[in-house]
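Posting for a labmate who doesn't have an account.
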Amino acid sequence: MNAGGCVRYRTDGQRVVNESLCGKGLANHVGTQSRIGVRTTDKATFLLTNPDVLTRARKIKLFLMDVDGTLTDGGVCLIAPLAIEDHVAVCVTEMKVFNAQDGQGLSIAHTTGILTGFITGRRSPAVEQRAKELNVHFVCLGQATKTLAYEECMRQAGVVEDEIAYLGDDLPDIPLAKRSGLGVCVADGAVELKQACHYTIQRRGGRGAAREVIELILKAQGRWEEAVPLALA
């Protein structure tokens, strides 16, 4: 894949390189923290305190997200050999740890027809592999600025901004969160991003954050109950 490129995966696992860049639903317990800081766990209270979030979630067709600090806990684990030549490690590799509940959530999103995508500033074979395993539709790595990748994902998906949810954790995510119909920040995200987002989830980055957003979307759309049996082994 070209540096800074964007890759789309087909349902058969083959990848397509984008050359231009390289109801029924809400459960009784919905833990949330709204933009104004109201934390609720009861369904009725949630609907009364933040109906705007549910209205926005009902429209979502494409769920885009950052990776480091969102799908991971933000740690960067570099593995180097003991042998050093001229003060430079011969070979340095990177390890990333992903959350299994996030993986299940992304699989459910794929099964229920919600498109998904990763937009990240780093280039990582581990991220590309994880995306392939989970049928993530858009994989945009090495994005110094994320706007072009965001716009290309939107174009390829055939959606408008109101139909996009974006999940991030830090300052570079602010422009995309502001543009999206549903901007979401992880619980341990930057204060400035929380202020820019419509919704702050309860889970921290790398601890099921993406899963929480997917559940919110499907519950708001009244489709969570039909999605659960699809995930059973």
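Reply:
Got it, the structure tokens are right above this. The two ends are 34 Å apart (CA to CA).
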